[in-house]
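@channel sequence for tomorrow's demo:
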Amino acid sequence: MVKNEYNISIIIPTIREKVITLESLESFKNIEVIIVKDKWKNASKARNIGAKISSGEILVFMDDDIAFNQDFFINALKKVHDKKVLWLDPPFICFITRKDFMETNGFDERIKPTMAETVEFKKLLLKKGIKVVELDASNIIHYGGKLTKEKYWLNQKNLIYVALKYERNPKRFIKMFITKNPIRFAKIFSYLIYWLLILLFIRKRSSLHDTLKENIIKENVLILRK
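structure tokens (generated this afternoon):
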């Protein structure tokens, strides 16, 4: 058995019956694994709930459909500290100290599950002066499904939101709308109007602060300590 000397909590949101990622954690001891059943279909919300009820000083966010070896995990733990985050996306893996995570106020729950919610979180980390170090993906197996047309457009919608919040280069922002396809232009423009109205009338960033106020529904959270 591999003994883990770190006070860590691993947080995995899932919509699956079987969490594949757990198989790579079987040999570790003294860890806390929090499985959050994502009944809201909002990975950001599920991650925030997991962070809220966790006890570790190092938080590890992971997708539910990955496999990795022990060396990958242990080496990442040795490198993470305040103001330094270990990062991989996709699949999404993030090693971060509790202190840094709480400083960010968590994942933005306005963004429904696509790759965009992690893009937004990474930009927020950088904005707060937290160094983001990319992890080596060579020893990671990702069993994720294909990007459907529906998920593609949802991702495009959410990337407009991220650009409105963080993009300071007008040329890059305008480039998002340049297309010869009138249907694509209409969709992208409608997303722009949608997010402008959200940001104009609902300015508060929906995130960890809101999750802290909610009663955690026990049947949606499984805590494994070993």
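heads up for whoever presents: The chain has two domains: 2-144+206-225, 149-201.
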